[in-house]
Amino acid sequence: MAASLVLERTPFLGAERVPLVDCSGRVLAEEIVASAPLPAFPSSAVDGYAVRAADAGKALRVIGESAAGRPFGRSVEPGTAIRILTGGVLPEGADCVVMVEDIQLRGEVVTVPGGLKPGQNFHAPGADLKAGEPVLAAGVQLGAAEIGLAAALGLAELPVGRRPRVALMSTGDELVEVGKEPGRGQIPDSNRWALLAALREAGADVRLLGIGPDEPDALRRLVVDALAGADVLVTSGGVSVGTHDLVKPLLESIGDVHVGRVKLKPGKPFTFATLPERKLAFGLPGFPVSSLVTFEVFVRPALRKMQGHAQLQRPTLPVRLGYDARATADRTEYQRVTLRREGPELVAISTGSQSSSRLMSLAGAHALVRIPPGDQGIEAGAVVEAMILALP
Ligand code: AMP
Ligand code: MG
Predict the structure, then answer these.
(1) pTM of the complete model
(2) Is the dihedral of CA 54, 55, 57, 62 positive or negative?
(3) pLDDT tens-place string over residues 97-113
């Protein structure tokens, strides 16, 4: 299958150490193990009094205070208590904390309730994480909680997969810059912006090449120059079989084309090539939906592999088809659907006309439903695995 062929030829780009300030969304390259317990010291969970559980029900002399970051130097002896604030170090001798709401205070004497239990109201060292415990696995994407954990363990920078540098080019003499008035027969270069967003969401560092010319030598110069500073070339348009379709011959002349057409709808002309120095080229079809669907199926997993992601594919969920899905005889079809909750189930509703030019079929779609080729199709009511883009 073309998708696995692409992944087999996709390299991991290696790791680099990055300060936490730039780690959001990056992919961890090595496992992180706790080097010390968390919390490192017994830490009060509440504002109250640190006491010995054995002194339950007694009136105790308050001998000092342990605030967060300001530990008290002495220990709690029988008949004494120490005022403690949330995050303060539990002093030696104390084995529990009584909440301020549960005591009576007269001057410097605190009366604590009966029935105190050792361990009450403080976090013991290692309660959250024990030293040596695995914290984050290699291949996870770093979000808020993961970065917070690394910071709590005192790690100022993390080893993460290098981001793929992608050169993005649109082709087609009919294209004009977005914002310029199109002349007769011209259209705005919308794929550039759609693919830029998709590439960035997938972690790529994108360089925009603009609109490539439908002229072989000029196109070749532009691509060869851009590849000097890129790991991946992504183009849209120019991979069909028309006389102005110059991308495929160009890729054949500078690398090896492994895929020149796929049994996919939309996206038949999808092209994949390997280039010198382990670089990759993806020639996406020009039709807007085709370019984004082939991006989902082929490019996104490859960009994730380059960064060392453990999870290359979108998650899937079983959904009940809410419409009769007709199949295409010789091609797998990725139909765009919205999802609706019906009790415990998700029901898939077609986004309407699935024309490859109709971006409205993808805007707001929650999932792609894969319909295998054939003359059968899948009837409404059947349960299929859907590739989830966003949940409703
Ligand atoms: P092509 O793959 O070059 O034959 O293009 C197929 C269709 O997609 C044509 O109708 C093109 O006008 C359209 N198309 C190609 N490139 C773009 C683009 N960058 N933005 C929007 N539509 C495009
Ligand atoms: Mg074209």
Answers:
(1) 0.95
(2) negative
(3) 999 999 999 999 999 99
- What six digits make up the tokens of 33? 């193990």
Q: pLDDT tens-digit profile of 232-270?
A: 999 999 888 777 788 999 999 999 999 999 999 999 999
Ligand nearest to the CA of 240: 1
* Average pLDDT, integer, range 46-52: 98
Q: Which residues contact 135 (CB under 8 A, 6 or more apart)?
A: 32, 33, 34, 129, 149, 150, 153
Which element (helix H / strand E) includes 238?
none
Instruction: Indicate whether 197 pLDDT > 80.
Output: yes
* The pLDDT value given to residue 213: 81
Mutate to test the pocket of ligand 1, among 168, 169, 187 (most ligand atoms within 8 A of CB): 187
Contacting residues for 206 by C-beta, under 8 A, at least 6 apart? 166, 167, 168, 196, 199, 200
ω into 188 cis (within 30 of 0): no
The overall longest dimension of the chain from CA atoms, in Å, is 95
Residue 26 in contact with residue 160, Cβ under 8 Å? yes
Ligand nearest to the CA of 283: 1
Contacts of 302 (CB under 8 A, 6+ apart): 6, 7, 10, 232, 280, 282
